[in-house]
Amino acid sequence: MRLINSIIGTAGHIDHGKTALVKALTGEDCDRLEEEKKRGITIDIGFARLNLEDGQVVGVVDAPGHLSFIHNMLAGTSGIDIAMLVVAADDSVMPQTVEHLAILELMGVCRGVVALTKCDLVDRETLELAKEDVARLIKHSSLSGATIIPCSSATGEGIDTLKKELASLAHQTKKSSGQKYFRMPVDRVFSVKGYGAVVTGSVMCGEIKVDERVAIIPGGGDARVRGIQNHGETAPASAAGNRTALNLAGVGRESVRRGRVVCHRAIANGFRSFVAQVICHKSSPHNIAHAKSYMLHIHTAETLCRVYLESETGIKPGERCFAQIRFEEPVQINYGDRFVIRTSSAKHTLGGGLALFPGGPLLWRRGIKRGKGKWTALLNSEREGALSIVAERPWGVLVDEIVSLFNLRQQGIRSLLKEMEGVGTFEYKGDEYIYVKEEGERILQNIENAITRFHKENGAATGIEESRLMKTFALENMEERLAGYWIRRAISSGKALYNGSFIQLPGRKARFSQEDEAIKNKIILAYKEGGLTPPKIATLHRDLELPKSAAATIVRALIASGDLVPITPDYALYKDVFREAKEKLLREVRRSGSVDTATYRDLMGIGRKAAIEILEYLDKTGVTKRVDNKGTRKLK
C-alpha cells in the first residue's frame, strides 16, 4: 500500500449525502455506531480509505452534519488537508453548509472540491440553480475556485470525475514530515484484548516508528508505541497526513481520550493560555466580546475558555485582532495551530484564528497591545517571529524554547537559524542558546567598562566579586546562569581575568592612597612578625585598630598580589613565612620519604590545627598528597 500524505474531510448540511458519497467513493460505510444506523444520520466522525487509480491510498474523514454534532465535526476537521464540501442539489445551500464552510476557512483548509449530490433527483434547471448558489457561496471563501461536480451516490453519476479531482488535489498537498516532531490529536480510543489501548487520529506532523516513546498531553504520562496501523494495515512507521492507529504500551484506556495529543517528548508541553490572532468570521451572528466565556475547539479538544482581546469593545463579523485565550485544562499547542470559537451554548460558530505564542504570563489589554510588534512578527513568519523573541532577550534564548514554540527538529532549527540574520549560537552547561551577535559584543564591552569603573572607584581593591558584577548595568536584566556565561566569555576573550575569587582587568595592579599605604604596611608588618600564628583575617581590623572595610579590601589586594598566602578563608601567612614552612616540609619528606601531621607540627612548633591547615593547602596546590588516615604526606 502506497500512502499519499494528505487527508480528505467531508463537510456539509445534515442529510445531504456525505456518508453515502464516501461509501460510493471508497466502498466503506463510515456509520459504525448502532444509533447512527438506527436513526439514519451520522453522529460521530467516521473513517475510510480511498484507493486511487495509480494504486495510492488517501484517508477520508466523514463528519456529521447535524447542528447538535458540530463539536464532532470539528474534531474530524482538525486534521484534514482537502475539503469535500457536500451540497444536495435538491436542497441547495443550507445553514450547516454555511457554518461548515466557515469552519473550513477558520481551520485554514484552502484546497477542496464541491460535490453537488443527489443530482439524479432534480431537473437540469434546478441543478443549474444549485450550482449558482454554491458558486456564490464559495466565491469569497477559502474554497474560491473549487470545482463543482454534480454526482449521485445512487446512480454513480459523476463519482469517477469526483475521484479524479480528489486524486489531483491529494497529489498537490503531500506533507513533508522531516522538520517537525510527531503530533497526533486523538479522535478515538478503544481496547483490543491482549494488546491494550489503541488510539487513532490524523497525524498532523512528523513521523513515528514502532518502539519509540511518546507523551500523552495533558496528563497521560508517556508510553511505548507497540504497534502501528495506517488505514487498517500494519506498518513499521507513520507520518504526517496519515490516518493512523497506535497501540500504546504502558498506559490504560482510561489515561487517553479524545482531545488529548500523542506527541514526541521534546514538545510534551501543556499550556493553559496562548496569544493568537482572533477572527470574528463574516458569517458570525454575533460579535466576539472582550473577557467573555466561549467554547474553544482546538485539535480534537473542546474546552470552555475566556477571550481577552486587545479591543475592549470586542470585534464585529469580518474584524480581527490579537488576544490571549485562557482555559482550565492544559492543551498541547504549537505556533500556527488553528482553532475555532463557538458560543458557550455551542449553538453558533463565531470565529477562530491562529495560535501565535503558547503560555507566557497572563496578559490584559495593555500587555497584549505592548506585545503587538512581537505578535505581528509571529503572524508574518517563523523567521520574523523567532527574531522578535531573540530580540527581547538578545543575550541568549534557549534553543529548546524555539523548538517548543515552532515544533522544530534539529534539521528544522538549523534551517531557521540560517534564515535569521545577525544571530549566533553558543553552548553553556549542556544547553544551546541563540543570541544577537551585535548585542554580544555590546555586553562584553559593558562588562569591561563595569570592571574599569569599579577599579577607578576602588583603587586598593583586587577586583570585583562575580555576584556584584552580575548586578551592574552590564548584566542586570539577565538570569544568573547567562550572566555567568557572559562573564566567562569576557575572560576567555581577554577582556578580564580571574584573580582568586575576584574579576579584574588584565595587568591591573592595586593603587593605594597615602592612608591605605599606611594600613597596608601595618598589615604586612603584623603578618611578618606573626610568623605561623598571625592575626586572624576576620578580627584583623580589631587587633590592629583599623577601619573594617579598608582592612578587608587591602587584605584581598595583598592576597591577589601574592604578599599574603590564603591557607584558609580566615588564616593567611606572609609569603616568606609560607615559603619557609613549605621548604622545611620538602626537606623532611626528601630525608625520610614522608611526613605525618604530628611530625610536621613538632617540626614547625605550631598547633595541630595550624599544621593540618597548612598541609591541606599544600595538598590542594599540588605540592603533596595524603596517603593514609594518619595524615601522612608524600610528594605528589
From TrEMBL:
A Pfam family that the UniProt record links to this protein: GTP_EFTU_D2
InterPro entries: Beta-barrel_SelB (IPR057335), EF-Tu_GTPase (IPR050055), EFTu-like_2 (IPR004161), G_TR_CS (IPR031157), P-loop_NTPase (IPR027417), SelB_WHD4 (IPR015191), Small_GTP-bd (IPR005225), T_Tr_GTP-bd_dom (IPR000795)
Domain annotation Tr-type G: ranges: 3-175
Protein's cellular compartments: Cytoplasm
One of the record's GO cellular component terms: cytosol
GO biological process terms held by the UniProt record: selenocysteine incorporation
Sample GO molecular function, one term: GTPase activity
UniProt keyword annotations, A-Z: Cytoplasm, Elongation factor, GTP-binding, Nucleotide-binding, Protein biosynthesis
Function recorded in the entry: Translation factor necessary for the incorporation of selenocysteine into proteins. It probably replaces EF-Tu for the insertion of selenocysteine directed by the UGA codon. SelB binds GTP and GDP.
NCBIfam families reported for this sequence: selB, small_GTP
Protein name per its UniProtKB record: Selenocysteine-specific elongation factor
Organism of origin: hydrothermal vent metagenome
